[in-house]
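User: Here's a chain of 294 residues. Predict its fold as tokens.
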Amino acid sequence: MSENSEEKSTIGARLKAARIAKGLTIDDLQQITKIQKRYLIAIEDEQFDKLPGDFYVRAFVKQYADTVDLDGNELLEEYSDELPATHAETYVQNVDEVQPTRSASRESPTTPAGRVRNYLPTIIVTGVVVLILLFIWFMAVRTHTSSSSSSATSSSSVEVSSSKKSSSKASSKTSSSSAKKTTKKKADSTKQAIKADGDSDTAYTMTNGAKKNKVVVKSTKAAWTSITTNGSQTWQGTLTANGSHDVTLPSNASTVKFQFGNAVATSVTINGKKFDFNPKNSTSQVRTITLTIK
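Assistant: Prediction complete.
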């Protein structure tokens, strides 16, 4: 065996040495990468079985390497034999919470009194509607009778009135059209919008959001995700396939950073509207997206 092979350091030792050379502590690295401290220590000790799963071993190692100025892809290639192989359908189970299933059963009333109570709201609403229709019919008949009497008094008055009505209708249509346009402009100006900052596909700005924006993260496959608000971590966890997690951002949120371990399989909605954070169809699995809220 050659001397170079004997002196080749392990991947954990190499990463640790690069971290120390960069002057970073484990706590510093956790703050930068948002990877939990225990996972970083496990990587340096090469205890890969302590990580969430084989897929995340390579994802976290690459992110660690890039942060300490090493080439993550080159490092993965060089130590591919030492790292666990990944499989498309081998992932971790959800480590944070399992959404409970809810089942509710409704008992239908079986007694006559119960059936009457069940239909009572419908009967009341129907009665109110009938009364309203009768009132409208009465007012229409009264207006029609008054109009006929005025028409018989003077034909010239009718002609003048007709001219005035036509003018009034035209004016009313113009006013109505203007009012609709104004309303539409106001609605558009208050509608939530998310746009990319220039040509960037990692930085976006959201306007006209809610007071407390609700974020829903979904994944078609197992995926690790981290959400940081104004520099403080709001939530971090791993979703199972077809899993989801809801996060309500604080009212003072101005900057939100999303970190995805499997971006291709992850989708995000904000206040019920899709946040398209991958408009250029990037195939990168590990991505960091910054959203500025105004």
